[in-house]
Write a structure and sequence with these properties.
It is a single chain. This protein is of the alpha/beta class. Helix content is 23%, strand content 24%. It has a seven-stranded mixed sheet. Strand 4, helix 1 and strand 5 form a beta-alpha-beta unit. The longest helix has 11 residues. The radius of gyration is 17 Å and the shape is globular.
Amino acid sequence: MEIIFHGVRGSTPTSHKDFLKYGGNTTCTEIRSKDFQFIFDAGTGFQNLEILHDRPVFLFFSHFHYDHIQGLPFNSQIFNPSNSVTISSGLVDSKQLKHVFTRAFQPMYFPIPLVETLKNLSFNEFSDVKNQLKDTCNIESISLYHPGGAAGYVIEKDNKKICIFLDHEYGENVGVDKNILEVSKGCDFVVWDGMFLDNELVTKKGWGHSSVEQAISFFEKNLCNRIAIAHHAPHRNDEIIKELENSLPDDKMFFASEKLRIKI
């Protein structure tokens, strides 16, 4: 499998010369194998993603805050009727999922009724997608602690495991934290929500995000092979992120950047 970061920013995209190294687009993460293309969330980074034609394409949503959905209509390839995309979420059923995007992208919020226009987008139950993929890989959804709820994802294929835990407030729910530690123990790759620093959490309690320092704590408990810190705060520029990256205690920890590709 190959993981590709198309958007690593949280809350709002940032456009400035001081944000070029790590990137200013909001959340969009891709996992490719010869058997599938998985896309996790469609922030503004989604506009730069290539929709593949030679394998099934699945778009999974963790939740529906703006920074995770706002890029969906801005990848021109989804307007090609030959590009079939299966949309699913571990957070809600297919009826609710379709309703979310029907409401989000219609006049008066968007120029056209997107869901009605794009017949190549199908909204499916997560359990059905999981069953469809059972001979190819195993994909599980796991509850995260976030206002309104959020779903993390665990992907296993060819004895490799990737975990995506974006939009989770670590340390606020013992049961949820214990669960994500158990399911990801010793895995090959974790994508971690490092929106805040510990000193920022004081005023951001209940906002649904973790810190860079908590990534270190999680890494030490989890013993995963590698961990990528993502969902960077929109004000945190390249210089600051680089300083934070240099202070990490292990070279298996790093900050995700746009266009970064890693083979697992």
